[in-house]
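Memo to structure team: turn this sequence into structure tokens by end of day. - J.P.
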Amino acid sequence: MDIVTLLGTIIGFGLVLTAIMLGGNLSLFVDIPSLMITVGGTLASTSVTFPLGDVVESFGGALSLFVKKKGRVEDVVNIMVRIAEISRREGLIALENIQTENPILKKACQLIADNADPQLIRDTLSIEIGTMKRRHTVSVEVFTKMAGYAPAFGMIGTLIGLVQMLSKLDDPKAIGPAMAVAIITTFYGSIMANMIFLPFAGKMKARTTQEELQLMIIFEGAKSILENNNPRLVYEKLSSFEPPKERKQRGG
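Reply from structure team:
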């Protein structure tokens, strides 16, 4: 689990809720019609903009931001070095028995075991990288669009509330509550855009860059193992992907 993403989301909402409770009654900020306009309108427009499958997959990707722990470059380097050690000790064919939950790594091990041409490995992983980037790009676009739709529907809700408020000008006591409800929809839209959709889109972009780097490490590691399965040489090449501080600690 990615604790940082979960913690950041909890802290953000916690601070907003605390500020509301310190300044008044939390129930004043709960309005079902406003939620219907902002949440329902945002989801409806998003479903029109994108195929339903892409929308569902994007929400699944957002959930994975909490469930899936952020991978580290050092861990991928270590894995490729261990694979090099196995291939040197037991032969390339032994890599067929490597057990991993990473399907790309499993495919790379199979290609190494088959003594595939490095160009084939490059082409295969290039396709995997391209597919992954296209999938993530769609998810980022979905949440970016939702970040634009939410405040817009918040404003629509505000306009609806203002029309209802103006219809009650003959009752001064009703103007205040009606104005509060009108403003709440804009509040909902801003919260959804700036505390959910935009942060998730940004995190997905970061994850895309990270996963692309990890696939490059797998490719370079597989290529190095085929060319020279000396674990030390494999590490020396792959260590270029590591942060200098980590590289220095391990190299020393």
